[in-house]
Amino acid sequence: MNIYDVAQEAGVSIATVSRVVNGKSSVSSKTKEKVEAVLQKHNYSPSEIARGLVLNSIRTVGIMAMDIRDVYYANVAYTVEQELSKLGYTVILCNTGEDTKEKIKYMKILMQKKVDGIILVGSVFKDAGLEGAITGIAGKVPIVMINGFVDSQNVYSVICDDRNGVYQAVEYLLGQGRKELVYLQDTDSFSARAKVEGFMDAMRNNNMVTGDNNLFKVKKGLEGGYEGIDMITARGIPFDAAVCGDDLTAIGAIRCLKDRGISIPDDVAVIGYNNSVLASCCEPVLTSVDSRMFEMGRSAIDVFSKVMDGEQVNQKTYLQPQLYIRKSG
């Protein structure tokens, strides 16, 4: 029996067991009694179960990302791996793709490998089809979601306030005298929906007209950005600024505007999202919202480390994005 077995039998998280073992005062007397009852049933003393936490750990953490080729996922996963290495952990990295069944398959594989925890990178894991699997696995090991949230015991979230990030971008554009804004939504995820809310809320709160001529769903990446602007201009929809859900989508938008002879930012301003290295690789250089990729990764491992040490951790940790103004906006 190890700490995970004790947690499961007592109906609590491993963090709670760890807090009981380490004599933390943050555990209620009722919960403490439940855990101690299980320990006594199996003739474990607190020191023995504490040693078991170390002896049964393989010091390995699973990292799951949809597509590590994506700049956002790559940067966050790299930071997570580096921070875990500092703590003495090795990692198993899984590229899951978009399919829900594949994501569940990889979760099961990681559990077969006896990992000490799982880090889910990206809001694509905020998926109704995954909630049951996440909740079930969290009964055995802690799960930290980066930019996603599932309301379940032993699941922790580090979230960038993407709604506020896009809200900042819209307010900046309106403050520059722009009056006809469009938004290119390039995915349908927890983060993407928050960005759309930020765009629409900022427009409404500034008494701007919103409707079908403001929000456009496109493919992610260069192709999506290009096709989105191509469609908007072909329909004759007037616009003087475009906000995009990702830097690469924004660069595709810039390419289309250039091909049509539209001056940036004189005629149309363009703002991207993530403030990735790509923002400096286009002409004009891209105004972008910094989604705090590296800080997100570091915060996720800080949360994971505290959970493993039995410390009390908030279920949600929020980071605030920041707008970086460059020539395209």
Descriptive notes:
The radius of gyration is 23 Å and the shape is elongated. Strand 1 (60-65), helix 5 (71-86) and strand 2 form a beta-alpha-beta unit. By secondary structure, it is α/β, with parallel strands linked by helices. The strands form 2 sheets. It has a 6-stranded parallel beta sheet, sandwiched between helices. The protein has a 6-stranded mixed beta sheet with strand order 7-6-8-9-10-12, with helices on both faces. The termini are far apart. Helices cover 45% and strands 17% of the residues. The protein contains 12 helices and 12 strands.
Which helices and strands occur, and which strands form pairs?
Layout: H1 3-10, H2 14-21, H3 29-41, H4 46-55, E1 60-65, H5 71-86, E2 90-95, H6 100-112, E3 117-121, H7 131-138, E4 143-146, E5 155-160, H8 162-175, E6 181-185, H9 190-205, E7 215-217, H10 222-234, E8 241-244, H11 247-259, E9 269-273, E10 287-290, H12 293-308, E11 316-319, E12 322-324
